[in-house]
């Protein structure tokens, strides 16, 4: 995308409204997790990103003990929601990437490299933004399944 195209998008009312609506929904999704699971998980700060990805991290006591967290990610280029298992730093990523690989973790496909994430799972492709409750329910269910799968493997 050229700078000229970006300027046209930002100056168009539709572009601004669409981006604002998307950010509002993603912040609401973060708030949903924080309020619904306040006794089970910790929800981190909202990262708006550079129109490449927007995400917020969540962790549980088990994941935190392993220095891991789950990123609930919206990939702008692919227009999809993803769940990323990430370590608190690259060293932890590498350690757990090797652990999951060596122990033959097959519940979710490991990332191609361990640079950004250990697991990068496409949770919801082509979401229907006309039904936000459906998106929220799907992301919630898949996130809980993802966490349970990872935690079960770590025990």
UniProtKB/TrEMBL annotation:
Residues 2-154 form the DUF7000 domain. This is DUF7000 domain-containing protein. It comes from the Bacteria.
């Amino acid at each position: 995308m050229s700078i000229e195209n970006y300027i046209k998008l930002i100056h168009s009312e539709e572009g601004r409204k669409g981006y604002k609506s998307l950010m509002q929904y993603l912040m609401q999704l973060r708030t949903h997790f924080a309020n619904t699971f306040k006794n089970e998980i910790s929800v981190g700060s909202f990262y708006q990103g550079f129109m490449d990805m927007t995400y917020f991290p969540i962790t549980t006591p088990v994941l935190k003990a392993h220095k891991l967290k789950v990123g609930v990610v919206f990939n702008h280029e692919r227009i999809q929601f993803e769940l990323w298992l990430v370590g608190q730093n690259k060293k932890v990523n590498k350690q757990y990437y090797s652990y999951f690989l060596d122990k033959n973790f097959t519940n979710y496909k490991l990332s191609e490299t361990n640079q950004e994430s250990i697991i990068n799972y496409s949770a919801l492709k082509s979401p229907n933004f006309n039904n936000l409750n459906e998106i929220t329910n799907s992301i919630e269910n898949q996130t809980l399944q993802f966490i349970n799968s990872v935690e079960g493997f770590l025990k």
